[in-house]
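Tokens as discussed.
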């Protein structure tokens, strides 16, 4: 298995002939549609046991170490995509369940029964994701404050979570609370511990999502209420949300630049054991119209395969930022210039390398709503 960067003049057939692999396999693994057009700079995964490779070709090292792999999905996920993805997941995070200030659990708007049953059929553990969304559909720290500071409300919510575990067959709870107030730092950690203590006798796992901090006293709405040491001790494991450096309302840049991701991991390891850390993996990119104007410009979210196809259709090469280990390109549509940053198998390989280098528990992907087959094949090659 190698990671190949398309060169000028390459075609699917020429790459296939060079490496002794069928063009159909390359097209399938990398989701390249007919007429199989390529663009220079695109990253491809080439995988076939019979390939004749030189030492210089080897880009993916073998590992006999298993890593846990989770993926988030909404209940409106396409069933075929879910079926294609579940074989690569140890955990399926059902996104998401909410709650009232009084502690009553609110199920998703869409029926998630098929996700739970299909996950079980395919040997994947279904996990209930708990989120504090307000009436506007946004994370609400007032709602968080009410639940973590009320013994009655938290007890009611934990009781209803327990019912879901037993009645629906969930294998655990993932607590994804964002914008936790600084004043709620300790009550939030205590709430996570209460959930853990209720789940543990049932044989269920408790995890918690953490904003990507690099220091104890990092300023910002995302960081003040997340105490890495306390939450790492309270939960069975944590998810580092190592993405969104490039985001909808921010300036164009990599979604998950490897150098920034590494900084978060290295800080986390000073507060949490490696075997309790899942690294967040971004399965998406952004398309920004230019020029960027803060407070005005809004990027469009797009899938990684979609991003590559835009470059192909526009006839523009893909560049690769070596520091951030991230692909990007620009193109023009009408009178508007666009800048796109996304993930490909090379950038994903960089994140997987961190998991191996630091001996982390595994990785959790946000999100699996769009199929990125190369990522899952790469994961299998590196960890299974």
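Sequence:
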């Amino acid at each position: 298995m190698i990671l190949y960067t398309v060169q000028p003049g390459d075609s699917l057939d020429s790459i296939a002939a060079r490496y002794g692999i069928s063009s159909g396999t390359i097209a399938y693994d990398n989701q390249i549609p007919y007429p199989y057009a390529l663009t220079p700079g695109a990253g491809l995964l080439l995988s076939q046991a019979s390939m004749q490779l030189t030492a210089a070709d080897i880009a993916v090292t073998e590992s006999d170490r298993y890593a846990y792999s989770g993926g988030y999905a909404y209940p409106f996920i396409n069933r075929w995509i879910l079926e294609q993805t579940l074989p690569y997941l140890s955990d399926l995070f059902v996104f998401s369940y909410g709650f009232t200030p009084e502690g009553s659990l609110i199920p998703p708007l869409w029926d998630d029964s098929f996700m739970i049953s299909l996950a079980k059929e395919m040997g994947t553990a279904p996990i209930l994701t708990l989120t504090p969304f307000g009436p506007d559909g946004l994370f609400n720290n007032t709602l968080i404050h009410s639940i973590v500071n009320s013994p009655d409300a938290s007890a009611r919510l934990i009781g209803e979570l327990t019912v879901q575990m037993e009645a629906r067959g969930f294998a655990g709870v993932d607590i994804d609370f964002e914008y936790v107030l600084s004043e709620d730092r300790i009550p939030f950690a205590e709430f996570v511990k209460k959930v853990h203590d209720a789940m543990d006798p049932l044989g269920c796992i408790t995890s918690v999502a953490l904003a990507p901090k690099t220091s104890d006293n990092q300023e910002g709405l995302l960081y003040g209420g997340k105490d890495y040491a306390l939450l790492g001790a309270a939960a069975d494991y944590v998810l580092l949300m190592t993405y969104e450096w490039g985001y909808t309302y921010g300036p164009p840049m990599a979604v998950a630049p490897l150098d920034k991701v590494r900084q978060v991991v290295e800080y986390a390891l000073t507060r949490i054991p490696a075997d309790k850390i899942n690294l967040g993996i971004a399965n998406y990119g952004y398309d920004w119209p230019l020029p960027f104007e803060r407070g005005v410009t809004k990027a469009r979210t797009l899938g990684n395969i979609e991003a590559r196809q835009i470059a192909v259709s526009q006839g523009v090469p893909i560049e690769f930022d070596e520091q951030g280990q991230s692909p990007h390109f620009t193109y023009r549509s009408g009178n508007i210039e666009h800048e796109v940053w996304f993930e490909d198998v090379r950038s994903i390989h960089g994140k997987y390398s961190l998991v191996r280098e630091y001996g982390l528990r595994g990785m959790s992907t946000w999100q699996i709503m769009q199929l990125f087959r190369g990522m899952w094949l790469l994961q299998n090659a590196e960890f299974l």
